């Protein structure tokens, strides 16, 4: 995997054998990207260290001896690094650093600060030593499936000096989490706390004072709720809500203390008092009354685990405290071990995020700091007095007049309703701004303190109307500060700024969207990618171009945006308010550190909810300027992604020449005058049958215009999905974790493009399945694995999404788009007979199974089918309705199972799948039973239903086929499930619970006796089939777990030659 991702690797030597002749474990390695240049692998005589000399620096990876301090070993490693390094050197690893090692380092060596990794109360720090360069700790990421451990990341700048500056962090505000609805008495106390926080004066306070008072009152409400235990304070306050952002120096790693319980701290205090008494008094003595009362309070709160009586003397107190600490440590270790095992068997949101980063592949960590980011964007946001910048607003007006963009009259501003503002707050999400209010805190205030939200609404309306002619910098810094975070680009030294405003300001701007001019019909940023792509494909073009703006949001002049809004008829008060918020202070925030504020004169914050609308309004004249050049030209835009297409039928000259003229008009008459620039690296030109990437999809629009049939793919095609699927086995944990990761990280790469995208190839399904099960063995049945989780199968999940979103193609005139939809429907044995704006009417194909027809007929009876369709098709139904989507999922399961049945050499255990009842999987009883299973039972059920049970009859050449329980000569899965005496008691118990005869087990087909898929012949009614299905799979789980204990792991897949064995 490392080689595929472009890494080279140098391993340390293998560890030697001990006195017993047993080879030990351990080792380390250095991985580097081959593009760094020629590398020299340095020799190593130990498995504890290894090095490589790169053109930029020499890197050593090492880890210290276990549970000991080896001064000589550390001295040897540092001396070796100094001796071998003709350039800057970096020593990184798990070093048990001690104060005694400090004398080993010369003055040129420095150590990067890093937080310790706490494991069961003890610290195991990772260190990075630098020689002739500077290193800083970048991040500490969680290890997937291994709680309490962290992977340290360091950034080394070989060109930087070794001198380090103190690290700083943004002071945090208090964080609150509301739990329950306050009672009337509690609500009265919260209201009283709000009134006491900032008393109203007789006169109306000034705006700056009013905003400060509101933040104080809102924080007082949260603090009072925390005292009443209605809310929980999850973060300590370092500054008040809404205050000016300030920084503090970050503590060194040596100052970090492992978390301790209050009980342990009390015991340590008792022990320290006893030691100090012996030190100063020199003799033992009775406890003081105060100490006796403290011990009595401890016994009342926690009790004694080692002895039952309170100590009488100081020596006795020291002994009792020591015994209690040891006993408490043992209990905490046991609790930590149980919690570790529990977290290892389950996946959390952190695990999924970490797994998602792993599936995306290696990425360069950001090497810029907050100072670097501020310097990068200061020239763009705060340009000097440039003549072009001063005339940009006038240039936009000239372009709008030349393009004949109609000018609308500016009306008076009508404030949005309170209900609309409250609704936007309840819908808020995302990170907190500089004021410290998080989205869940804002939602809690809206739910539990509506009076505060009403007060905020009045304050926002007053501020917008009173600041039409100007806003003071102090009020700007309080109302509209922006926290700008940097997302690293492909070049890790460059950043992409994302501005984050206050949660309340974002909700307010969503309310102001109705006051802005509408977008041009050529701008599709609010209509969606699918509609934009379908409209672009529908134009019969012969040549075209795709152009993209460089830093579009950050290069828009405020004068240009103001002129565009004024020309479109936006109220003056709204335009002035937006101008004030755009020029609010922006703070670059990188890894907790905050840079100084920038007061911009250019750039629309990319995190503003109105930024997409404003960019579309600014680009409106461009559409008409280009289309006025020739009637054969047509333009599209999705935010800053612009497209130009020339139609061959309408063009009197060459289509390529028309596109060239349109590009010249774009640059000379629009982009340069208003101060924006095209990113030439992303420009695409196409002509004839050439392909082109448009909004992430690759297509050939000219071929589509001629009726050509071709497959539309995503940017990375299917190879990108295969690469991600090959990384999936690296994710540790159970199958459920990798299955969830595949659903969240792989399926969205395909489903978003439905119904335009082509049907994924079947090898994509197989690659994802092998990554989930982490095996290439043929024991796993591909059809049954995905039929059990049909919404996770790339092929069928895309087909289901295509039928759900097929209403987008109602006006599509390109055959290639309708062809893709027909292929998706054909995969489900369906045929699309009619498309409307709200319905997708489908019917079973002629050569489909009887189950597909029965499911379609049942869905048809639940919907209101038009009369003309019902007279032509007996089983027609709406695939986009709720009942239709349920029927499509059941049909997809049937078609997936039929894939295995219809192959030339089907497996023996698939007999009976053609009549399997797939609707059992949607029954409430089945879902309740499956959700109550333990993680181990869930894995066993997945293995059993996929036909991958490990029985003695498999791998006949490697194992004895006799039954390990009853010595039967041929112990197949059917024998274990239906005949083996070892499981007879379990079979009788299940017979009694469900109510069927003893011969039921032997009458079932192989698909039931070998994988638990129940057929229609298993029981007469649907409810009884659900019950017998649960019973059959309960016994299957017992068989799988019993065989795992008897036979252990299966042999290598190469030994498997009995694919069709019983």
From TrEMBL:
Domain Reverse transcriptase: residue ranges: 468-723
Database matches in InterPro entries: DNA/RNA_pol_sf (IPR043502), RT_dom (IPR000477)
Biased amino acid composition, Basic and acidic residues: 249-263
Start and end residues of each stretch annotated as Disordered: 239-265
Protein name: Reverse transcriptase domain-containing protein
The organism of origin for this protein: Polarella glacialis
Organism lineage: Eukaryota, Sar, Alveolata, Dinophyceae, Suessiales
């Amino acid at each position: 995997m490392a080689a595929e991702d472009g890494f080279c690797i140098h391993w340390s030597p293998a560890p030697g054998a001990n006195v017993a002749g047993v080879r030990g474990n351990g080792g380390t390695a250095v991985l580097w990207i081959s593009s760094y240049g020629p590398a020299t692998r340095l020799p190593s005589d130990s498995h504890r260290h290894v090095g490589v000399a790169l053109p930029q620096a020499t890197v050593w990876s090492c880890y210290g001896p276990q549970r000991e301090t080896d001064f000589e070993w550390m001295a040897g490693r540092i001396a070796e690094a100094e001796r071998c390094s003709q350039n800057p050197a970096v020593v990184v690893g798990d070093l048990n650093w001690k104060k005694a090692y400090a004398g080993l380092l010369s003055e040129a060596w420095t150590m990067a600060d890093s937080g310790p990794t706490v494991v069961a109360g003890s610290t195991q720090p990772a260190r990075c030593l630098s020689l002739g360069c500077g290193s800083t700790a970048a991040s500490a990421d969680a290890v997937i499936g291994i709680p309490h451990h962290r992977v340290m990341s360091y950034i080394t700048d070989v060109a930087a000096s070794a001198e380090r500056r103190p690290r700083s962090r943004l002071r945090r505000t208090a964080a609150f989490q509301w739990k329950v609805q306050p009672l009337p008495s509690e609500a009265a106390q919260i209201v009283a706390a709000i009134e006491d926080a900032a008393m109203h004066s007789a006169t109306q306070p000034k705006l700056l004072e009013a905003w400060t008072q509101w933040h104080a009152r809102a924080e007082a409400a949260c603090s009072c709720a925390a005292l009443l235990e209605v809310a929980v304070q999850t973060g300590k306050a370092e500054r008040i809500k809404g205050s000016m952002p300030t920084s503090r120096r970050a503590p060194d790693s040596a100052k970090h203390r492992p978390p301790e319980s209050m009980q342990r701290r009390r015991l340590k205090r008792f022990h320290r008092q006893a030691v100090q008494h012996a030190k100063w008094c020199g003799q033992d003595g009775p406890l003081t009354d105060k100490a006796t009362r403290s011990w009595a309070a401890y016994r009342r709160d926690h009790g004694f685990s080692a002895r039952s009586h309170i100590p009488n003397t100081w020596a006795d107190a020291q002994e009792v405290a020591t015994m209690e600490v040891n006993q408490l440590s043992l209990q905490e270790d046991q609790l930590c071990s149980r919690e570790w095992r529990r977290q290892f068997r389950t996946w959390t949101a952190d695990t999924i995020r970490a797994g998602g980063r792993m599936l995306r592949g290696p990425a360069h960590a950001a090497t810029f700091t907050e100072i670097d980011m501020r310097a990068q964007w200061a020239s763009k946001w705060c340009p000097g007095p440039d003549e072009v910048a001063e005339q940009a607003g006038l240039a936009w007006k000239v372009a709008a007049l030349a393009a004949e963009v109609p000018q609308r009259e500016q009306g008076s501003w009508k404030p949005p309703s309170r209900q609309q503002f409250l609704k936007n707050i309840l819908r808020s999400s995302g990170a907190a701004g500089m004021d410290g209010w998080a989205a869940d805190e804002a939602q809690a205030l809206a739910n539990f303190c509506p009076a505060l939200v009403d007060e905020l609404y009045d304050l926002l309306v007053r501020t917008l109307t009173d600041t039409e002619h100007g806003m003071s910098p102090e009020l700007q810094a309080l109302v509209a500060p922006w926290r700008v975070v940097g997302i690293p680009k492909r070049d890790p030294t460059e950043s992409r700024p994302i501005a984050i405003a206050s949660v309340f300001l974002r909700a307010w701007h969503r309310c102001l969207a109705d006051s802005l001019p509408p977008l041009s019909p050529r701008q599709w940023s609010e209509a969606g990618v699918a509609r934009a792509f379908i409209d672009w494909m529908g134009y019969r073009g012969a040549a075209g171009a795709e152009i993209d703006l460089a830093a579009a949001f950050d290069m828009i002049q405020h004068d240009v945006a103001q002129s565009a809004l004024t020309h479109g008829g936006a109220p003056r008060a709204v335009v002035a308010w937006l101008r004030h918020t755009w020029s609010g202070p922006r703070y670059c925030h990188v890894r907790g550190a905050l840079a100084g504020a920038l007061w911009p004169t250019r750039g629309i914050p990319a995190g503003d909810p109105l930024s997409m609308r404003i960019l579309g309004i600014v680009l409106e004249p461009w559409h008409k300027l280009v289309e006025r050049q020739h009637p054969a030209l047509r333009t599209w835009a999705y935010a800053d992604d612009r497209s130009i297409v020339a139609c061959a039928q309408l063009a009197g000259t060459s289509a390529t020449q028309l596109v060239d003229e349109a590009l010249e008009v774009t640059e000379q008459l629009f982009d340069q005058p208003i101060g924006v620039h095209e990113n030439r690296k992303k420009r695409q030109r196409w002509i004839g049958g050439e392909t082109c990437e448009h909004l992430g999809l690759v297509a050939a629009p000219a071929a589509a215009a001629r009726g050509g049939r071709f497959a539309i793919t995503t940017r990375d095609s299917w190879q990108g999905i295969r690469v991600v699927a090959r990384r999936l086995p690296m994710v540790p944990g159970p199958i459920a974790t990798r299955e969830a990761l595949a659903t969240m990280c792989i399926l969205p790469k395909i489903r978003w493009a439905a119904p335009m995208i082509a049907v994924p190839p079947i090898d994509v399904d197989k690659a994802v399945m092998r990554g989930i099960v982490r095996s290439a063995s043929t024991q796993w049945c591909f059809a049954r694995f995905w039929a059990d989780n049909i919404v996770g199968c790339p092929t069928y999940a895309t087909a289901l999404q295509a039928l759900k979103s097929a209403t987008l193609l109602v006006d599509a005139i390109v055959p290639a788009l309708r062809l893709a939809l027909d292929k998706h429907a054909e995969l489900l044995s369906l045929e699309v007979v009619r498309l409307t704006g709200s319905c997708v009417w489908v019917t079973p194909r002629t050569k489909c199974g009887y189950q597909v027809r029965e499911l379609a007929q049942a869905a048809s009876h639940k919907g209101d089918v038009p009369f003309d369709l019902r007279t032509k098709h007996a089983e027609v139904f709406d695939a986009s309705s709720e009942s239709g989507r349920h029927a499509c999922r059941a049909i997809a399961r049937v078609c997936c199972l039929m894939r295995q049945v219809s192959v030339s050499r089907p497996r023996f255990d698939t007999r009976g799948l053609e009549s399997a009842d797939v609707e059992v999987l949607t029954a409430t009883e089945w879902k309740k039973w499956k959700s109550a299973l333990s993680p181990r039972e869930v894995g066993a059920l997945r293995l059993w239903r996929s036909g991958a049970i490990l029985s003695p009859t498999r791998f006949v050449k490697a194992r004895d086929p006799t039954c390990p329980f009853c010595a039967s000569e041929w112990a197949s899965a059917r024998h274990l499930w239906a005949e083996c005496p070892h499981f007879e008691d379990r079979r009788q118990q299940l017979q009694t619970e469900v109510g069927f005869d003893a011969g039921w087990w032997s009458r079932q087909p192989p698909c039931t006796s070998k994988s638990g898929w129940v057929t229609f012949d298993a029981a007469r009614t649907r409810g009884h089939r659900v019950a017998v299905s649960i019973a059959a799979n309960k016994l299957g789980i017992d068989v799988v777990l019993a065989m795992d204990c008897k036979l252990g792991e299966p042999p290598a897949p190469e030994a498997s030659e009995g694919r069709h064995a019983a």
